[in-house]
Design brief:
Low-confidence stretches: none
Number of strands: 0
Shape: elongated
Largest sheet: none
Number of domains: 1
Radius of gyration: 15 Å
Mean pLDDT: 91
Structural class: mainly alpha
Order of helices and strands: HHHHHH
């Protein structure tokens, strides 16, 4: 399968989104922690702020890998798993429903990257 322009547009757009969100979380981890459901907060092994800072770092890493077109199948898979966890831990609301589209885009990127890598 050939990587065409749509692959690169999707990869760059999602990469920018992940880097941007990571930076926003770094700037205000407590505010972003407000999206986490209370039942999840009770299960966390670390303070919520620390979890949010780790989340920010993961978001930035995924975004950067997508932007530089390196290990896209890994970053796409990790990003999709991350968004699945976000949907589970924050619930599906008017704010998080957009994550479903990002999730689909990441799955598509991971599959295309895996298929072209395997050839």
């Amino acid at each position: 399968m050939k990587k065409d322009a749509s692959y690169h547009i999707l990869r760059v757009a999602i990469g920018i989104t992940f880097v941007w969100i990571g930076i926003l979380i770094f700037q205000s981890p407590e505010a972003w922690g407000g999206f986490v459901e209370p039942w999840v907060q009770n299960l966390l092994p670390l303070p919520l702020k620390d979890i949010m800072l780790a989340t920010a770092a993961v978001d930035v890493l995924i975004g950067l890998l997508l932007l530089v077109d390196v290990f896209v199948w890994i970053s796409g898979t990790a990003g999709a798993l991350h968004l699945a966890v976000v949907l589970i831990t924050s619930g599906i609301t008017a704010v998080t429903v957009r994550d479903i589209g990002l999730l689909g885009g990441l799955v598509a990127l991971a599959l295309v990257s895996w298929q072209t890598r395997a050839k």
